[in-house]
Design brief:
Length: 113
Amino acid sequence: MSAYASLIAAVTRHRGVSACLVVVEEDGIVVDATAQIGVDTSVFAALMASLYRKAARAATSAGFGGITFCELEAERGRVLAAGRNGLVVVAVADSRANLGILRVDLLRAAAGL
């Protein structure tokens, strides 16, 4: 059992969540993950780490300080990310997910990194 297993379990227990990953913010390497069949975690992790870094730069440039949470909404679902200490917790959720509770659990998970 990895150090992040309970953190990932707390996120994936939500209805509509199809994947949860802990990735290195700098290069997108997967530290730990769980995903349903069909989710390519390695490519996805690298792209989300890049998006999170760019969102952090945008927030800093706008004078908002460091980023704590990032959400990408698409036609059939959302990708949510929260980071700390050079790691990012990423969740993939469809439209059935309760985003308020999921956000709270992602921020709680990030605090545990």
